[in-house]
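Example 9 (inverse folding). The structure is encoded as follows.
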């Protein structure tokens, strides 16, 4: 009987899966693309339907459909399995919870807790009325699995204990706390709160964010899960599981602050929206543990982003920080101009079209900052002589974070036109400022090919020997000698996957030509190496005789190659 993994692979072609994430180009019987795992201008990422695998000659990323989804979505194997099973229509049936591994039991605790919170909301008219008052519809509440828990000490704890989960397991996922007093027992972290479940990109619940229903003036308005084995604030954004498909289709992301901003935006049909609420923006693409961070996931879906934070001072600080991070990661950043005292949730509730217009009129971050400076000068009647200082502080740092020189020049010219400051003065201040600021640069992760030219040519020939009528192995032994042949066979073994795929790509058309060219190049490399070795011979007569013979053979090979390439 086939396993779920085997069934998924039978139903889904690798080009279908990868093509749903990135744009593919046909390359013979294979496909190529720009690698989603490192920065590159020309495609070095290849997909082989025949071998059901992918390989990047730039960064070395490789694997099957499960490896791709894991790396692209920042998931573990089970998360990738869930996504691909849904895509393939393969039901996943698991064993009883007692026999599951520790991490899977954690996911089950989070799922049980979500159901508990959902039932809590159904039983609370007050909590439901609060959500209705905020503009939420029943379907939206169900889709986002919003819940509620009463303000009592151990409701969730006792529920999970009855489900046979241990104190240690429940504490590990951040749902209960233990007081400092030794004689006191565990109590619930979330009490008297509207609960918003936070999911990873596959839709598995990994954390919660709770908004207090009755503000007592002492408790935090929002309470979020701590970091746990399932949840790292820097590797997820609220709503990413529901937004990712629309982000791919529309080719831009809208980033808002709060849960209500996000939920109402989705309710209004703007589903390419994610929120930072309950999470934290990371300023790198990957963590120290090499786990892809939240903006890293968003960037793989689209490099375009609109920041739509609240218009208060805290929102402005968050906008500035988020814009600097996104620019430093190579993203194209725009800012939505939200009227003072409003937030996206207010705009959607008043009129969804108004929210859509705000997004349509979003400006590139540098243009937005220039306009804001000039508006403040006008509204607050600031001395015009202070404009250069305001531009230096509020605009130039963003230009410095932009990677492309032509874009920098475009915005420097915009400053000149809007402020009247000379381009020469702007450039001088920018250069002075740029020297003192360290911008985070994205490393390309490009690696050099792991084999030298002799080993690589040899490996390619070995891996396509079945395509030739020539006895390649005998020819290679003749050129390299038995001892060198055996050494090379061992050397190329660990690079078999990449050599096999490169051979397939190279020999997809006109294999006879490429095989002859490779053999000639291989022999030329060997002769060149041997000629270098000859320089160490002390016997001048012997040296001249051998060197002359090698020179003649090398010239013959060069002539054959020229003739072949014509």
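The amino acid assigned to each position is listed next.
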């Amino acid at each position: 009987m086939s396993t779920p993994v085997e069934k998924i692979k039978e139903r889904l072609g690798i080009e279908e899966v990868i093509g749903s994430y990135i744009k593919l180009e046909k390359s013979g019987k294979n496909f190529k693309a720009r690698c989603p795992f490192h920065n590159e201008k020309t495609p070095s990422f290849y997909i082989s339907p025949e071998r059901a695998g992918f390989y990047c000659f730039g960064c070395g990323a490789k694997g099957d459909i499960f490896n791709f989804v894991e790396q692209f979505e920042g998931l573990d194997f089970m998360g990738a399995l869930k996504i691909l099973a849904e895509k393939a229509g393969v039901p996943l049936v698991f064993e009883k919870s007692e026999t599951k591994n520790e991490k899977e039991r954690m996911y089950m605790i989070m799922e049980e807790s979500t159901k508990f919170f959902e039932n809590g909301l159904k039983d609370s008219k007050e909590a439901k009325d609060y959500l209705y008052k905020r503009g939420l519809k029943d379907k939206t509440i169900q889709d986002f699995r919003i819940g509620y828990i009463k303000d009592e000490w151990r409701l969730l704890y006792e529920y999970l204990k009855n489900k046979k989960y241990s104190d240690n397991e429940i504490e590990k996922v951040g749902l209960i706390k233990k007081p400092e007093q030794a004689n006191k027992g565990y109590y619930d972290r979330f009490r008297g709160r509207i609960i918003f479940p936070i999911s990873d990109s596959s839709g598995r619940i990994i954390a919660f964010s709770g908004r207090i229903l009755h503000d007592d003036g002492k408790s935090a308005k929002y309470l979020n899960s701590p970091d746990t084995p399932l949840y790292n604030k820097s590797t997820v954004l609220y709503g990413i599981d529901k937004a990712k498909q629309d982000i791919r289709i529309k080719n831009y992301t809208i980033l808002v602050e709060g849960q209500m901003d996000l939920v109402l935006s989705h309710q209004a049909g703007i589903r390419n929206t994610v929120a930072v609420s309950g999470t934290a923006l990371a300023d790198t693409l990957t963590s120290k543990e090499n786990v892809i961070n939240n903006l890293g996931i968003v960037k793989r879906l689209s490099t375009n982003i609109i920041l739509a934070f609240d218009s208060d001072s805290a929102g402005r600080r968050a906008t500035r920080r988020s814009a600097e991070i996104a620019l430093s990661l190579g993203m194209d950043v725009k800012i939505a101009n939200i009227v003072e005292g409003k937030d996206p949730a207010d705009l959607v509730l008043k009129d969804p079209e108004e929210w859509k217009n705000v997004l349509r009129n979003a400006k590139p971050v540098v243009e937005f900052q220039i306009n804001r400076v000039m508006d403040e000068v006008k509204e607050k009647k600031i001395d015009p002589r202070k404009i250069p200082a305001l531009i230096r502080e509020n605009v130039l740092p963003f230009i410095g974070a932009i990677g492309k020189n032509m874009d920098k020049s475009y915005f420097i010219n915009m400053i000149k036109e809007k402020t009247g400051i000379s381009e020469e003065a702007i450039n001088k201040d920018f250069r002075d400022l740029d020297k003192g600021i360290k911008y985070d640069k994205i490393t390309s992760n490009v690696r050099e090919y792991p084999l030298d030219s002799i080993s690589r040519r040899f490996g390619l020939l070995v891996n396509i020997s079945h395509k030739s009528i020539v006895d390649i192995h005998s020819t290679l032994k003749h050129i390299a000698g038995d001892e060198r042949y055996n050494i090379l066979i061992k050397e190329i073994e660990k690079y078999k996957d990449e050599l096999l795929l490169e051979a397939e790509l190279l020999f997809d058309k006109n294999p006879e030509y490429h095989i002859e060219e490779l053999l000639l190049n291989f022999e030329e490399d060997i002769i060149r190496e041997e000629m270098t070795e000859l320089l160490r011979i002390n016997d001048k007569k012997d040296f001249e005789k051998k060197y002359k013979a090698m020179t003649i053979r090398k010239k013959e090979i060069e002539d054959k190659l020229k003739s072949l390439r014509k």
